[in-house]
Amino acid sequence: MSSASLLSWGQFPRYPQSPTVCHWPGALAPALAKLAAAHGSTLAYGAGLSYGDSCLAASDHVLHTRALDRFVAADWTAGKVTAEAGVSLADILRIAVPRGWFLPVTPGTKYVTLGGAIANDVHGKNHHRRGTFGCHVRRLGLLRSDLGRIECSPHSHPAHFIATIGGLGLTGIIEWAELQLVPIRSSRIDSLTQRFGDLDEFFSLSTELDEAHEFCVAWIDCLAKGKARGRGVYMAGDFAPTGPLAVETKRKVTVPLTPPFSLINGLSLRAFNEVYWHKAPATRRRSNTGYDSFFYPLDALLNWNRIYGRQGFQQYQALIPEHVARDGISALLEAIAASGTGSFLAVIKRCGSVDSPGLLSFPKPGTTLALDFPHHRDLGETLFPRLDAIVREAGGRLYPAKDAHMTGDDFRRGYPAWQQLEALRDPALLSRFWRRVTQ
Ligand SMILES: Cc1cc2nc3c(=O)[nH]c(=O)nc-3n(C[C@H](O)[C@H](O)[C@H](O)COP(=O)(O)OP(=O)(O)OC[C@H]3O[C@@H](n4cnc5c(N)ncnc54)[C@H](O)[C@@H]3O)c2cc1C
Fold this sequence. Notes:
The protein is of the alpha+beta class and 439 residues long.
């Protein structure tokens, strides 16, 4: 069955995808065979919350797995949940939170699917403690066009298991997965907020607070120059020891339409950043907040990607290795501030040393900087090449889940295990991203 065409979250690059929607596991194998025969290849598509072209099929015909959204089993004593790949993290929270369990790792939106979270091996505010999402996946069911159904875990088809975690959807269709949750005694978060004046202050706050708190992240003013370069607001938190175990269902507002041009520009951004930074507390302020506003503030504004207008936007997320992180991030910020473009959504986080299980997982020890840019032609011609050169020089890499521009050379240098993944790629699956960076 087909429905309207799909894009990725950044709406760039603009290659509309024709979806074949699968509602039942039994429909997957015939759909995979049919799409491969008709179009050469296909790709699973979850919620489409990846920014660039990693969730777009090279053939522009995707296998839409969001409707595979049933729970298969749950053990509430051990906190283990088995679910089909289209189940969203919000669906998991709905049944887990009242029983005293939470996601071990969560990205900044709860609308991603289980399959998408595994395929990009997503990370969150607690990377320094718990590593990536894939660290908590115990088993998964994979459907391949050449091998049929296989169950993968560290003990069964281990090569396919580590290739599928962070495998960009290329090793087969994930049908289901078993996830280990973490226990909580309250769904509220005890949080603290403090602004910092420059990058040195960020790194010293991070050294002190990452040790003491499970969740840590900072907003950074991407346009601040001179002495103020690298200023921002640090946020840390932990689940409160007591309190309610309540699913949060806040009222949502929707951006109703896509304006012809981006509502984010240098002027509005500079004014916003100025006010936001000055409003943040200069000394530590503690509060108690719901998990929804702590982890998912952006989910309150549905379809917020529309504010970037019809041209869409690109996210630039780089990781700079620990030993050169300060200088590398400083150089990136200097180049961005000089360009006068960027967005309010600029996030900096120090990743920890917990090993990712995936062959191509993005995080490693170092500091990651992520920010959105309204799309325009100059981005790919001037700013991004400048930023890429800094990342290359520092020995860092970019995050495929957010990418629409990285060169094949940079990808292959940043992810030397790519050939191992290519060897295990399902011949019926190919994304626009993979074709762009490997072929
Ligand atoms: C507001 C926002 C905040 C975000 N914050 C973070 C963050 O903090 N950390 C982070 O790591 N990421 C973050 N992301 C990125 C997002 O978490 C990832 O891109 C995620 O993979 C998207 O999941 P999805 O279900 O939308 O999958 P899609 O975007 O549809 O697909 C992503 C990949 O998963 C594959 N896939 C999907 N389903 C299956 C399946 N059943 N079988 C095999 N492969 C499959 C696709 O082929 C594709 O390669 C954020 C995104 C947004 C929009």
